[in-house]
Amino acid sequence: VRRRLPAALLAIALLGSALKDGGLVPDTPLRNKRNPLNVYFVKVAWGWTLWLLLPFIALTTYQLARSTLLYGRTRSALLALRRLSALAVGTAVWFVCTQLFVYIENLTGECSVPAKPGDTPRLYATKRECHQGSGVWNGFDISGHCFLLSYCALMILEEVAVLEGLSTDHNSKLRVVVNVLFVSLCFLTVIWVFMFLCTALYFHDFSQKLLGVLIGLSGWYGTYRFWYLKPFSPGLPLPKIPLSSKKYSYSR
Question: Rounded distance, CA 227 to CA 242, Å?
């Protein structure tokens, strides 16, 4: 899944846009932005991802460091804190990109407001002001859903790879907690990919979706495939195993 998902996301964006533009998409409740999956999951996608990854990274990194017999309690805790900083990096990527999307939409858009006799036309500088004036803002709206859902799904898959090197007693309470978190993260990833498909089928123009997913892939690649290989970084989930080994290989 880790090897194929980046290409699969690009294919979904391409195929979904083709079906949407060809009018071949059936009318379902998922077309409505107020559907429960969109309101309670996608709108707070980073919150869900952060809430589940935080305990998972902390527990698995600490246990992995302890099981190697190379780290004491203090150094294991410090390593866990270092790995948790990946969530701070992810939060920064999410915030900067979403703010950039808002800025671009405001910069490229204009407000369409129904004209009323005798009223002086008002100029609106932002999408928020336009909506407050009951108008429709027409700008280049890079798909924040395509960006965030692709980035979250890829980040989760990178972090759960730590289980390949984790050794714990299968009957221990720690293993039960880790398994519950792992299943929850897998379930969340399925939701993110499914809602990515829905976004590709029902919302945005092709260029907006393509740019969104490309930025999401760039955020993942720039961190897990480039920066996290450097000494001064949060590091990879399996710090003692090089990226070229079979545990990180994309040619297994």
Answer: 14
Query: pLDDT of 39-53, one tens digit each?
Result: 999 999 999 999 999
pTM for the model stands at 0.88
pLDDT exceeding 90 applies to what percent of the chain? 56
Residue 63 has pLDDT above 80, yes or no: yes
Lowest mean pLDDT among 76-85, 157-166, 242-251: 242-251
Domain boundaries in the chain?
A: 4-19+33-109+141-225
Distance from C-alpha of 164 to C-alpha of 181, rounded to nearest angstrom: 15
Secondary structure in 3-state letters for the chain: CCCCHHHHHHHHHHHHHHHHHCCCCCCCHHHCCCCHHHHHCHHHHHHHHHHHHHHHHHHHHHHHHHHCCCCCHHHHHHHHHHHHHHHHHHHHHHHHHHHHHHHHHHHHCEEECCCCCCCCCCCCCCHHHHHHCCCEEECCCCCHHHHHHHHHHHHHHHHHHHHHCCCCCCCCHHHHHHHHHHHHHHHHHHHHHHHHHHHHHHCCCHHHHHHHHHHHHHHHHHHHCCHHHCCCCCCCCCCCCCCCCCCCCCCC
Q: How far apart are CA 106 and CA 138, in angstroms?
A: 9
Q: pLDDT digit string (tens) for 189-207? A: 999 999 999 999 999 999 9
For residue 224, the tally of other CB atoms under 10 A from its CB is 23
Report residue 230 as tokens: 């450097």
Residues with catalytic annotation?
145, 204
